[in-house]
Amino acid sequence: MSRLAFLFALLALVAAGAARASEAHPTLAEVEKEVICPVCHETLDLSTSPIADRMRTFIRERIAAGDTKSEIEAKLVAQFGESVLAAPPKRGFNLLAWVLPLVGIAAGAVTVGLLARRWSRDRPEPVPADASANGRPPLDPELERRVDEELARFDA
Amino acid sequence: MARRGKTVLQAAAVLVVALLVALLTWQVVRTDQGRALGAKVNAGRRPLAPSFTLDRLDGKGTISLASLRGKAVVLNFWASWCEPCKEESPRLESFWQQNRNDGVVVLGIDAQDFDFDAKRFVDRYKLTYPILRDKHGSTLGHYGISGFPETWFVDRRGRLVGRHIEGPVSDADLERYVRLALQS
User: Fold this and answer.
1) How many CA atoms lie within 13 A of B95 on its CB side?
2) Would you say B180 and B155 are in contact if contact means Cβ atoms under 8 Å apart?
3) What residues in B contact A51, CB-CB < 8 Å?
């Protein structure tokens, strides 16, 4: 168990280090995936429009000038507005875009849990232990006595 | 109690679905409004031009379409990376120089562009007519702009007239539709 925890902690450290490196010294490919072409509304890495080419040139220039990923994205937002970002910033009204999916997942989990509970409650009663061989509940004793009498009369 | 909870959940689900449908409808209607304007104008009708107030590219304040009432406006949508705009802009500049004292305004709207590229374009082609910057592209949907350049003509009463020109505007288009805009 402790080995597993150590492995997770190590992985988290590696991921955090990679994220810090990407923020401080981003590559064109990393920024391209986070920026939308305002003309075709695809991420830059998928777009071949003239403005996407121009934006790639701008990003290369900013990377060469030593800008961080956040600085480059802020400069693009200043030019094209927040809609240029593939993921909305985590503040104000845009926070809804981050929170709503989590709320949806939580609501779905609660609904599934409630339904599962209801289904398990609505299951048919288990067959009593003294059930006849065919799995049906035993006959009423009075009815059984009459059936026996009829059968005896029939045999006679 | 359980039934009440179920009713609340159902109402919430219906509300969420209704909101999503309303959002989708709003988006579709907004996009179609611009396209519908083109069809109306090309059919000879004169719908009111969608209003806007935008910053000037040169940083000297803002201009609203409403402030140009009483003048014929050539509304030209462009971007510096647009190839046909390079051929069209000198024609617009020439038309502006010839008609600026006769109640005509050529108004450029630069969108989906870097402002420093747009300024470089203006310097290179020596454009002197007012140019606005639509950073968020908010006017594009209202005017049904699907590419650059595109041009509309607004009459003295703020109505769209003539034709919605998709592609470079010609001298003949400018003469004909500005005359129409001035007659109203």
Assistant:
1) 26
2) yes
3) 79, 81, 112-113
Nearest Cα of chain B lies from the Cα of A81 at a distance, in angstroms, of 5
B32: pLDDT strictly greater than 60: yes
With a threshold of 0.80, does the pTM exceed it? Answer: no
Chain B positions in Cβ-Cβ contact with residue A81 (cut-off 8 Å): 135-137
- Count of CB pairs separated by less than 8 Å, A with B: 26
Continuous H helices in chain B:
2-42, 83-99, 115-124, 138-142, 171-183
Contacts of B174 (CB under 8 A, 6+ apart): B74, B91, B92, B95
Residue B181 and residue B184: Cα distance in Å, rounded? 6
Mean pLDDT throughout B118-143? 96
In the block, residue with structure tokens 């009369």: A153
Tell me if ipTM is over 0.90: no
